[in-house]
Specification:
Mean pLDDT: 90
Distance between the termini: 50 Å
Number of domains: 2
CATH class of the largest domain: Alpha Beta
Helix content: 25-40%
Strand order of the largest sheet: 1-2-6-3-7-8
Low-confidence stretches: none
CATH topology of the largest domain: Adenine-n6-DNA-methyltransferase TaqI, Chain A, domain 2
Bound molecules: S-adenosylmethionine
Order of helices and strands: HEHHEHEEEEEEHHEEEEEEEEEEEHHHHH
Radius of gyration: 27 Å
Length: 400
């Protein structure tokens, strides 16, 4: 094939033990042999546990590598042998992506190799058998000596030879979360991302054309410190923080929480307060272990009786020109924003864990009729994610 394509090709088949030879060469102990360098490595290394005293462990240790699986040993050696800009494509078990044992391996890998693409096989039965145990395998492509890219391609296929590959581009910060000391490698489902992207591409309604706006909570607590009260008292109104979110609705007051529950209602604070009404609240910051990035809850004036209310700066609120929303529209919006489709779409373009009002303003929404229909069909706010998703997707796909 190379001949036909006019490509020079030369090869050497080495019958030696890669672990032994390369460890020695990297350790500098093989009579001064310089380790070889490679521009590219395509590997399907053996997978096998290597015990502490095994020859493989001792060889690797001599090169400063400590690992309990042979495949990790191969990858460690290879990335040391790659030239700057050199590329690696490897098919390995998925096991290194999480867990404490592989943490040093991940740290080392991510510090020296820029992950370009990760391929996963959807069917576990199509994965290779290893000692009679089904292994989940991945293929990854990485380049040495470059910074991590802003986005990584995640692709998936069944694992059978039917050729269909789903592909999505995902923020690197979604794969390896910026503050994760454990450096876990998360691999989102490419097909879900693709469905989310297509579904969202079918939406063309802007928030403004729905007659709605979204703003960041106006109460910046440290600036109004003297007006804050731990518990509600005469002359105060409710102050809402993300800690008041409670499965779709607001739980207020929360005297067990560290945050103040109330704010004085006077001339000084009034510009930062909002006339009470039905508002949709969104957390601006979500913990990295939180299931969803976009977390919405409904502030219902029937449950928290007050004329005015303060929304703290750690949340965003949807409103209609400064007033509350109509019920079914608010509930429809609630379902839409809490859906997996929106969540996955959001994760695609936003690697950070913040949900800013600008992001929500730029999002495309279902039209008013669809939102009202979704809202009308929501029996309760706190419903299982899959039921909420089914309802939202049914309406989004039913659009002409
Ligand atoms: C998963 S198989 C992959 C074979 C082949 N590269 C392919 O993709 O079809 C792993 C191979 O690594 C070889 N192997 C195991 N330990 C090795 C070592 N220390 N040095 C060199 N090759 C080794 C095994 O003999 C086996 O052929």
């Amino acid at each position: 094939m190379c001949l036909e394509a006019g490509i020079d090709f030369d090869f050497t088949i080495k019958g030696s033990d890669f672990i032994e030879e390369m460890s020695a060469s990297l350790a500098g102990s093989l009579f001064g042999t310089k380790p070889p360098t490679f521009d590219a490595a395509i590997v399907n290394p053996p997978y096998r546990k290597i015990s502490t005293g095994s020859p493989e462990r001792l060889h690797l240790r001599s090169a400063g590598i400590e690992t309990s699986n042979l495949y990790a040993g191969f990858i460690y050696l290879i990335h040391r042998l790659l030239a700057p800009g050199g590329q690696l494509v490897a098919i390995t078990p998925r096991s290194f992506c999480n867990g404490p044992y592989f943490r040093p391996f991940r740290e080392n890998l991510l510090a020296s190799l820029a992950i370009q693409q990760i391929h996963v096989f959807e069917s576990r039965t199509a994965a290779f058998r290893n000692d009679g145990v089904l292994q989940e395998n991945i293929i990854f492509h990485a380049i040495k000596g470059q910074p991590q890219p802003a986005e990584v391609i995640i692709s998936s296929s069944s694992g059978n030879h039917d050729g269909a590959v789903a592909q999505a581009s995902v923020a690197y910060a979604e794969i390896v979360r910026p503050n994760d000391a454990g450096k876990f490698i998360h691999i989102p489902s490419a097909s879900h991302h693709t469905v989310a992207k297509e579904t969202m591409a079918g939406l063309h309604t802007s928030l403004a054309s729905l007659g709605l706006s979204v703003s960041t909570g106006r109460v910046v607590d440290f600036r109004l410190k003297s007006a804050l009260r731990q518990e509600p008292e005469a002359g105060t109104v409710p102050l809402l923080y993300p800690c008041h979110f409670n499965g779709g609705t607001v739980h207020w007051p929360r005297t067990d929480a560290r945050k103040p529950n109330a704010i004085l209602n006077n001339a000084e604070t009034r510009p930062w307060l909002v006339k009470s009404g039905l508002y949709l609240l969104i957390k601006r910051f979500t913990a990295k272990e939180e299931r969803r990035r976009v977390v919405a809850c409904l502030f219902d004036p029937a449950e928290v009786i007050a004329e005015w209310v303060g929304f703290e700066n750690h949340l965003n609120y949807f409103h209609a020109h400064g007033q509350g929303l109509e019920k079914n529209l608010a509930v429809g919006l609630y379902a839409f924003l809490n859906s997996t489709v929106v969540d996955q779409y959001f994760r695609r373009f936003s690697g950070h864990t913040q949900v800013n009002a600008t992001d929500l303003r730029q999002l495309a929404y279902p039209d008013r009729k669809t939102l009202l229909a979704i809202g009308g069909e929501m029996k309760q706010l706190d419903q299982p994610q899959n039921e909420l998703d089914q309802l939202v997707e049914k309406h989004l796909h039913a659009r002409p």
